[in-house]
Amino acid sequence: MASRVLMPKGSDTMTEGKVLKWLKNEGEQVANGDPLVEIETDKVDMEVESMASGVLRKVLVQAGETVPVGQMLAVIGKAEEDISSFISSNGGGAAAKPAAAPEKKEAEPKEAPPPQPMARAEATAPGPAPTPPVADRGRILASPLARRIAREAGLDLASIQGSGPNGRIIRRDVESATAAGAPAGAAAPQFAPQGPEFRDEPLSQMRKTIAQRLAQSLGPVPHFYLTIDVDMKKAKELRESANNLKTDLKLTYNDIIVKACAVALTQHPDVNASYTGNAIRYHNRIHLGIAVAIEGGGLITPVVRDCNLKTLQQISSESKDLIARARTRKLKPEEYTGGTFSVSNLGMMGIVEFSAVINPPEGAILAIGSVEEKPVVEGGQITIGYRCRMTLSCDHRVVDGAIGAKFLQTLQQILENPLLMAL
Amino acid sequence: MAVIAFREALNQAMREEMQRDETIFLMGEEVGAYNGAYKVTKGLLDEFGPKRVLDTPITELGFTGLGVGAAMTGLRPIVEMMTFNFSLLALDEIVNSAAKMLYMSGGQLGVPMVVRGPGGAGHQLAATHSQALESWFCHIPGLKVVTPSTPADAKGLLKSSIRDNNTVIFIESEVLYGLKGEVPEGEYTIPLGVAEIKRPGSDVTLVAHAKMVHVALQAAEELEKEGIDAEVVDPRTLRPLDTETILQSIRKTNRAVIVEEGWPFCGIGAQVVDTIQHQAFDYLDAPILRVTGIDVPMPYAKPLEHLHAPDKARVIDAVHRVTYRG
Questions:
Q1: Structural domain containing residue B132
Q2: CB distance B282–A147 less than 8 Å?
C-alpha cells in the first residue's frame, strides 16, 4: 500500500509551508525515518522524515513551491505499484480542504494539539523516545476522553503509548502516564518535575467581568504597563567577577535578569499564568521565553524550560545556543513553544525603556532597557550608578496592577541583591 | 404493594382511567366479548358496557380513523392493535391525521388518542408478526412513543398516556404480558419523557427499552462477576427522549452499549448514539456499540429466531469491547 507524504503542521500558527529541497530523488529508495524533504515553516526550516519505506514514486510539489498544511507532497510506494488513484484523488494542485482548515484552527487555539495528517517532523534524530502510536497516515489515535484528560494535564499524546485497538490511547493510558509523571513533549528537561503542568482556577464572576470589560476596551489582550528602575551595580559586579572566575563563561545581563525573573516568579505564581477563556491557568513550571530578532527581519521566542531549576551557568549556555540557532531559523518547534513568561531586551541597542507586546497565551512580558551609567542620588550625594529600566506588560485579565507591581518589587530586590538567587 | 402481571397492570390503568373520565373509550379487534387477544382488556366490557368497549371488524385503517375523528370531537379513544404489525395498515391515519392534526388546524384540533398493543417478536410468529416498529413511529413529529418494561411502568405510563393531549403510541410486549412485579394501587402516574436508571453502575452505560431492559439487566448481573459495574438506563419514553439522564450516565461511565430488539439501520440506537456523540463527545473513551436484531426478516425456525434477537451473550461481548477487555 502506497502512502502519502503531507505538508506537516510544524507549529500552532503554521498554515502553509514551502518546500526548500528534496533530499531524495524520484525513484530513489527511502526507509522509514530517512530525511526526505526540507521545508520552511512560518518559524523555522526543518527536515521532514519519511514515515514509510519504499520508493519515492512521485514528487508532486517541487522545491520553491508553497502549499497549505496537509497537502500531499509526494507518494511513497512499491516500485511497481499503481499509484494513479493516489495522485488523482488528492491531486497535485491546491487541495480545497487543507486551505480552509488552518484558518479555523487559528480561531480555536484552545483545541487539542492538532491531529493533523502529517509526516513526523524532526529537525534532528528523535533519540530513544518510545514509538508513539501513529497510524499509517501519522494521526495519533486517541479517544476523545483521553484527548481531553491529556490536554487538561498538559500531557503530549505523542509521548503516551496506547493500549487500545491499533494503539489507540484510551483513558487508562493517559491516567497511568499522569501517575508516572510523564514528561510533556519531546523536549523533556534534564530535571523531571513531578505533578501536573498547571492548575486551572475557574473564573470568578468578578474576574469574568474584569476580563470582558478590559478586553472590550483594549482588544483581545488588554495590556497595561508598569515600569521600575533597578540599580544594577551589584548585578554588574556579579557578572564581572563570574566571567573573571570562569573564562569560558560569558554571562550577560540578560542571563542574570532571566534567572532573577524565574526566581521572582516562584514567589509570584500569579504572574506565571494564562487566561484560557473560562479559567486562569497557573503554570506549575516556569518556562521563560527570550525574544530574539531574526536576521533579515522577524522575531521568535525560544524557551528556556524550568528556568527556576537551572543555574545561571546552565541558563547562560542554553540561551546562547537557542539564540544562535533562532537567528538562523534552526529551532525545533518544541524549542519556541510552551513559554509561560517572556523577556524582551533591547538594551544592547541603546533603548532606555520600552513596552513589549505580550506573547499569548502568556500573561506578562518584561521589556528590558539598557544598563546605563549615570549620575544618581544616593544618601544625599550625587554619585555614579548603573541603572536599568524594566517595563512589565501585563494581561489585565490575569494580572492586576498591584500583583504586577509586587512582582517587580521582588525582581528589583533580587537584582539589587543577586545573592538572593543563590539562596 | 400488590404483585400483579404486566397485563393486569395495563388493565388496571385503563379501568381506573375509564372510571375517572367517561369520555375515554376502548376499541379494537376482540377487545370486548373475547376479553382481548392477550386478555389485557379482560372484564372491561362487563364493567363499562358496549358503548365504551367496542369490538371492531378487522379494519385497522377504518377504526383508527374513527379514533382520530372521535378524539377531534372531544372523546379520548384507546385504540388497541392486536399487534403492532397490524398498525402498518393504519399508518395513514396515525402519521397523516393523528400526528399532524394539531399542527395543520393551527392548534384548534388535537388528537388525544392512545394506540396500544404488543410489539416485537413473540414465539415463532415469523417474519410478518415479529417486528419491533418503534423507530417508525419515533420518526414522526407529533407522536409520542412509550415502551414500558415493567408492570409498574406499564401502569404509570399508560395512565399518563391516556391523560396526554397528544397521540401516544404505546408499545407493549407479548412476552412481557405475564411478567409479575409490584405495582402501586390506585392513582399512580409516571410522567412521559422521563428515563429511569434500572440499575446503577459506574463502568459502562447500557441503554435499553422494553424487554431489552431485562436482557441488559441479565448481562449486567453476569458482568458484575467479572468486576464490570454496568448501569442500565431505560428511557421508558422513546419520544420525547430523556437525553439528560442518558448523558449524565455517559459522563460517569465514558462508554455505552445500546440494546434494542429492532433492526440496526435507522434504529432507536442510531438516534441515541447521535445524541451522545454530539453532546458528550469529550467524555467518550470508546466507540459506542449497538446490539440489535439481525438485519434480516425474522426467521420462523426456532434456533434462527433465537439467533436473531439480542441476548445476554451479545451484550456482554459488546461491553467487553467498549471496556477494552477480551
A1: 2-183
A2: yes
Q: Which of B228, B282, B285 to mutate to test the interface with A (most CBs of A within 10 A)?
A: B285
Q: In chain B, what residues touch A171 (CB-CB under 8 Å)?
A: 254, 285
Could B284 and A145 be called an inter-chain contact, meaning their C-beta atoms sit closer than 8 Å? yes
Positions of A annotated as catalytic residues are 396
* d(CA A117, nearest CA chain B) in Å: 21
Q: Which residue has the cell 530525511?
A: A35
Shortest Cα–Cα distance, A70 to chain B (Å)? 25
* CATH code assigned to A201-422: 3.30.559.10
H/E run at residue A17: strand A16-22
Give the model's pLDDT for residue A327.
87
Between chains, do A170 and B324 touch, taking CB under 8 Å as contact? yes
Instruction: Select, from the ranges A180-184, A219-223, A299-303, B73-77, the one with the highest average predicted confidence (pLDDT).
Output: B73-77
Nearest residue to B90 via CA among A118, B99, B192, A259: B99
How many CA atoms within 13 Å lie on the side-chain side of A119?
A: 30
Q: What's the CATH code, domain A1-109?
A: 2.40.50.100
Q: How far is A266 from chain B (nearest CA, A)?
A: 33
Domain CATH code at residue B119: 3.40.50.970
Contacts of B323 (CB under 8 A, 6+ apart): B203, B204, B228, B255, B286
CATH number where B213 lies? 3.40.50.920
Distance (Å, whole) CA B102 – CA B315: 41
Task: State pTM to two decimals.
Answer: 0.54
pLDDT, one tens digit per residue, over A285-297 is: 999 999 998 877 7
Contacts of B282 in chain A (CB under 8 A): 144-145, 147-148
Instruction: Give per-residue pLDDT as tens, B1-44.
Output: 899 999 999 999 999 999 999 999 999 999 999 999 999 999 99
Instruction: Answer yes or no: do B262 and B296 share one domain.
Output: yes
On whether the CB atoms of residues B188 and B155 are closer than 8 A, the answer is yes
Cβ atoms of A375 and A385 closer than 8 Å: yes
CB contact under 8 A, B282 and A163: no
* Domain count along chain B: 2
CA distance A410 to A404: 10
Q: In chain A, which residues have their Cβ closer than 8 Å to the Cβ of B284? A: 143-145
Q: Which residues on adjacent β-strands are paired with residue B277? A: none
First to last CA, chain B: 43
Digit-coded pLDDT (tens) for A369-419: 999 999 999 889 999 999 999 999 999 999 999 999 999 999 999 999 998
Residue B129 is among the residues annotated as catalytic for this protein: yes
Indicate yes or no: CB of A145 within 8 angstroms of CB of B254.
Answer: yes
Q: What percent of chain B has pLDDT over 90?
A: 98
